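Q: Got a minute? One more chain.
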Amino acid sequence: MSKDKNLDKDIDLKRYRDSGGISLSSLNLGLWLAENRRKLIRTLIVFLIAVSAFFFIYSSYHYIVYFLTDDLSQQLDSNNLLLSPRKVTTDLELGAPLVFSSNGAYDLAVKLKNPNDKFMATFNYCFRQAETDIACAAGFILPGEEKYILALGRELIDSQAGVSLEITDFFWRRINVHNIPDWQKFFAERLGFVVSGLKFTPAPTSGDAAKVALNTLEFSVRNATSYAYYEVPLRIEFYNDQELRGVNRYLLADFLSGEERAVKISWPGDLRGVNRTEIKPDVNIIDETVYLKYQGTKQ
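A: Always. Here it is, folded:
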């Protein structure tokens, strides 16, 4: 019996080699994996859940920062239109409608002011008199902009009755600061039109020339931007000091970058006392469809 015990002590399991080439350590590893398979699967599941939770929290944090840093507490749709009733914008400011007589017809104007520097607005509007629509159109106003909306050469039901402005389908649209980080630079780069040689001659009120009483405006306008436009409406305002005395409009079609055009227009109306004329482009530069594509500079 003592001889058998000595034989058992001489056996070294670490030196065991299976005829198939599998070592004892490999067998132990396989056994351990088999015994702990469920624990390993659970650990893997917990790890994947933790990774998913991390990326969810990370993404949520950056979305929150994105909106809060832009002072946005309203929901927006895919076009950046405001859908939530929560208040984040200041109301548009509307002036009183102005009516200017022009040779039997009337020019209408209302001053709008957008006090919001991160939102533009689109809307429909109608000039109305006695519950009747006189002129209707679609309009827009850019961030921080102050402008007149116009209706020219209209007939009124009663020249003594008041005119009102009705705005419908009004939507605020937030300027995406990630696409347009500097609105003032964006504005200047696209509306850099240079007006020169401005000369306004009011219609004569006496003598033979008064029989054909036409105001005349001459000027040149150059597109000093890097952009070409299908149309550039020009809003023309006539003042006596700070008082608006009349309005007009002129349309530049296919206005290329670097191009300069001479303009001369005449129209009837009494604009005596005008001592200041302002010409302003009225282009929705947020709308990509206003730009002419693949047009070179015109020399």
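A: The chain has three domains: 22-69, 93-174, 183-292.
Q: Perfect, thanks.
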